[in-house]
Amino acid sequence: MNVVYVVTVGLAGLIAAILGGALPLASRVGAAVALTWLSCGAGIAAAVSVLSSGHVISLSTTAILPLTGVTLVLNPLGALFVISISVVALASTLYWLGYASHGLDTRSASSALPLFVTSMLLVPFAASVATFLVLWEMMALTSLVLVLTDQSRREAARSAAQWYAVMTHAGAAAILLALILLSAHSGGQTFADIEAHARHLSGAVRGTIFVLALLGFGSKAGAVPLHVWLPKAHAEAPGPASALMSGAMVNLGIYGIILVGNELLGGGPVWWWLLVSLLGVVSALYGALYAATSSDLKRLLAYSTTDNMGLVLIALGASGLFGAVGRPTTAAIAMVAALLLLINHSVFKGALFLAAGAVQAATGTRDLDRLGGLMRRMPVTGVVFFVGALSVAALPPFNGFVGEWLLFQGLLHGLPTSNTSVVISVAVAVAALALTGGLTVAAFVKATGIGFLGRARSIEAAEAHEAAITMRLGAAALATLCLVLGLVPMLVLPAIERAAASAGRVSATSATGGWISLHLLGLRGVLAPSLLAGGLAIAVLVVIVIRRLTHRRSHAWPAVNPVEPWGSGRKLQTARMQYTATSFAEPLQRVFDDVIRPSRDLDVSHFVESRYYIERIAYHTSNDDVLERHFYRPFIASVRWWGQRARRLQNGSVHRYLAFGFVALVIVLVVVA
Amino acid sequence: MSFRFLYQTVVHPRKVVKDLGDAPTPQYTAATLHGSLQIRHVDAGSCNGCELEVTSAFAPVYDAERFGVRLVASPRHADALLVTGPVTKNMVEPLRKTLEAMPEPRLVISLGDCAHNCGIFNGAYGVEGSVSDVVNVDVHIAGCPPRPEVIVETLRGLTGR
Amino acid sequence: MNGLTHVLTQVLVALFQVAAVAVGGPLLLGLMRKVRSRLEGRAGAPIHQPLLDLRKLFAKQRMRPRDSSWVFGAGPVVLVATVVAVTAVSPLVSASPPLGQSSDFFAVVFVLLLGSVLLALSALDTGTAFGGMGSSRSMTIGALCEPALLVAILAMAIAARTSNLPALVRVGISHPAVIASPARILALASFLVVILAESGRLPVDNPSTHLELTMIHEAMVLEYSGADLGLIILGESMRLVFLLGLFVNLFVPWGVADRPGVLFVGLGLLALVAKVCAVGATIAVFEVFTAKLRLFRLPELLAGGFVLALLGALTAVVR
């Protein structure tokens, strides 16, 4: 039965892609969505059976890839990822039904999206190097097609797709190298073979493999400094595609790191995990800072993805660190925190991107400086974004809070130790967590407040209509899940515990509890999220009742009077007098000026007749990614320069080309001998 | 900072504060304020003489705060609008807007002869009229400028303290 | 029956704590204003004046800006509700408050943060420039306060091996040496800086300024009237009392009721009142002699608080 599920996942996705490409306009999206749902459902069924029974599902065949064969194995870790991807995919494809009319009903999009979902679902199943790489590549290509949707009208989409294509393939090259090194030294290319032989590898080889895998998978997850593609691609991708990319694809980057670091290589020395933590700290701070100073809604969300993946990397690094110095309890808690943060991120980031997609569809713009007042015009989307924003900011009673709490507890209880590297890294991690938390709160207050509240700053925002019913349902489903997971984290914790255990080197259970509270085993730490939420709800009701009761109704004035806002009595108050996203972030930007280094351009033009009379002042400021500006662009420029110089080697003479070939052959023969 | 200094200022302050006697009977029943009055001040065009007296009324000697009166920054927080000066042409709209921004129950207090009948600025080209020409006035404090004791006594009549 | 009486006593203690803080908040506000007035040479309003102000405010008309949404009305409600919720479960009067074992310091901080966030969002909902300004500045300060606050909690929690709030207070009662440890002193110094920043007291923010461009917290509430304004004033004063109450119970925990019984709870209340009034009066005296810092000097102050907390955390580890 389980094998049937696995086959259904792949087959349904494939048929969905074919139908999406072949059917006429009226039915292609519906058919593709229905079959994608079937695929996701089968994935969930397979994952649930693995998690509940503890047995793995395996399937191998040489039918599809004749030379290497396809090996699919689902262990609890993979099952967890399959479930989280399926949930986001179910909501996003439902949303796609309503969004399709905005450019996503073309043949290419209708076949790429189901294929994208299926390849993401199958990556956790992959159990051999060839299968993994084929699925990875398929995932990258289909998402590239999705980013390029409607690209004839958008120049930025083409540029984003270029960056994405190059960086994802560079990452894939690093992963390829790492996996090839592993299989070369293990004599077989299935993960089972690799695991069996991995401990015989020398420390230097293991280190190289881990660093390559970290770079490749980290780039996919959006770790700084390899994150540059993420704000571009995730911002330019259409609504459901960006939700899938941020909510599901980045998870696979983390899956890859856990796969190579914990499962295949079976854990490593302290410096590996210090490196992971360092990447995490830098990503978290960088992502949070850029999210706080960004005025493009989807770019803000994309940088927030980098931030959250940084938090997950911090948790992973802490887990490995504690495991390497011999503290299994806190290692377990940190690993559980990492996986919980990841699942929470999928859910709330999916909800946020779906809401942002609805806003973009309704107003035609992603620029926060041109939005506003949308909470009244698009109430459901507004509430979804509000819930998502509170979840990202890790505020109770939503799910982000439980993950952060668990991470703090893991770091806190790991601290009484004599190992200096652990002490310093944990202290730095806590400080980084706190600062990113604060910056994230600022970023999302800005996004929600400027984007949805107040008055509309442009005509498009003033005339926005609420999204279609399927779009609302998809987004609201994820938002409701944010609340449910925040109230009852025990729904997912047993599954996460199993997954963490199968990732190796961690103890079986670290946190337990019933529907009400969460206890840490062996340590003193208790959290009662549902009680907290219940207490808050009761307090809110009490306050509302008191407010009603104390109001004197005996007078002629209305209970709540809608009036003009108070603007110091000035005669004309327009919507443009409100704060914009840029002005909201200005104090933070000033504080972190040296890091962000925004480019400022002031152009003052005078009247011809006199230097003292100014005709026009134009001020231009932009927050380009500083790493992109100072490293990537010079690097690309230098590559281009070397390329230009290398053209001189190609002077058209066949003799010279033959000579090159001869020299290369001689060198290869010498090296191989 | 010595203990003697702290004692003299916090525990047993020198009697700068003037004793102004018992509370007058509440004369104005337009507002039942329960001993708390928040005032928003608007200068509609005065010479600042009345403002100096208001400042003096809230300063150490006359100290209107001990009777429950406080100046606030926003009309939404205020119960009473204290207007000084004749209303100049440019201040008509802002004054009306300030009054509209105040929640009910609300009062308007006009302070000084200029607020009552334009005083020495009667007929000037920039002046629109007196405060009662623009908004409904509930309480008037006469004088050019009115003495701080008179101001405080009127305010005490509102709070009943 | 034993279970029922236990639950009943817990509920009563919770209600008692909430009522104490709800009445004590405006009274503390009045006390601080009185101390400031005295130092300025005036007599000042009586200490119970804020209670009279609130009574009047709750009976006034409520107004909302024409283009605002439900968030505008939700801001004050959530602000007060969050403070009420954390007050009920925190060790203010008793060292074993209701639901004490789930009363986690991190949870308390994040619940209070929820209140601040809703207030900032409702300020943006007003559609005025002042609301945006107050919200922006408030969030900037909040973002820079977080590291100091959370590392201070870490510093205190390392030594006690838990971040459970009643446990932190109890460990101070049972092992007085913990209170004199450099970790806790540094952490509490940092906590005090954060309290001043979060409650909008000088030198971070002048609560009685009339100049909109100098406002941080006041700018967010310029648009509120009537019961909404009353709730905000109540919520802010309750938050100050709550934070100061935590501060004194972590620094000077003697007097907190560590045994059940009406007498002990009463003594606990008296001790709390005395300690909070002392700290509040000291802050008021400090405010009279301090000028407000420039907005862009605040990161330096908060970074200083962070360094204190970090030193505290490091000394807690390296014992």
Concise overview:
Chain A is mainly alpha-helical. Chain A is built from 25 helices and eight strands. In chain A, the strands form three sheets. A three-stranded antiparallel beta sheet of chain A has the order 3-4-5.
Structure characterization notes:
- The complex is a heterotrimer of chains A (673), B (161) and C (319).
- With 673 residues, chain A is mainly alpha-helical.
- Chain A has 25 helices and eight strands.
- Chain A has a domain at 576-622.
- In chain A, the strands form three sheets. In chain A, strands 3-4-5 form a three-stranded antiparallel sheet.
- In chain A, helix 3 (76-99) packs across helix 20 and helix 12 runs parallel beside helix 16 (399-414).
- With 161 residues, chain B is α/β, with parallel strands linked by helices.
- Chain B has one domain: Rossmann fold, CATH 3.40.50.
- Helices cover 30% and strands 17% of the residues of chain B.
- Chain B is built from six helices and seven strands, in the order H-E-H-E-E-E-H-E-H-E-H-E-H.
- Chain B has helices at residues 3-11, 49-57, 92-100, 113-117, 131-134, 148-159; strands spanning 37-43, 69-71, 80-84, 87-88, 107-111, 127-129, 139-141.
- In chain B, helix 2 (49-57) crosses helix 6 (148-159).
- Chain B is globular, with a radius of gyration of 17 Å.
- By secondary structure, chain C is mostly helical.
- Chain C has one domain.
- Helices cover 69% and strands 1% of the residues of chain C.
- In chain C, helix 4 (105-124) runs antiparallel to helix 5 (129-160), helix 5 runs antiparallel to helix 7 (182-198) and helix 7 (182-198) packs antiparallel against helix 10.
- Chain C is globular.
